Amino acid sequence: MEVLSGRIVVRPADMSRSLTFYRDVLGLAIAREFPGGTVFFLGSGFLELSGHASAPAGDAVALWLQVRDLTAVHAALADHVVREPREEPWGLHEMWIADPDGTRIVLVEVPATHPMRRDPRTPS
Description:
Elements: E1 8-10, H1 15-25, E2 30-34, E3 37-42, E4 45-50, E5 62-66, H2 70-76, E6 81-87, E7 93-98, E8 104-109
Parallel strand pairs: 1-4, 5-8
Antiparallel strand pairs: 2-3, 3-4, 6-7, 7-8
C-alpha cells in the first residue's frame, strides 16, 4: 500500500464551537473549507472537522501535537488545561487539554537533550 496523504477526522457535536476552538483558541491555520467541513494544517498533517457526532469520542482518541515552548503554550491555554505540564518517564514534557467535546489533546515539548533530538547517524 502506498499512502499519499493522511489526516485526522474529528466529528464534532457542535461544529461552530469546535471551529472556534481549533481556529481561534489553538490558532490552527485553515488549509481548506468545503460545505460541511474545514481542514486545518496540523504540522506535517491535517485535521478535518466534518460531519456530526452524537456522542464524544472520550478517551478513545487523542491528538498528539508537538510544540516548541510548552511553558508559553501553557500560559496561552491555561483555561483549557486538564493536566498540568510535567516531565514524563520517557523524557518528554507533556500537558493535556481538551477540545469542546472532551477530545484529549496532548501538547508535547521535546527537550534538547532527548534522544528524539539526536541524529542516530552521529556519535553522541
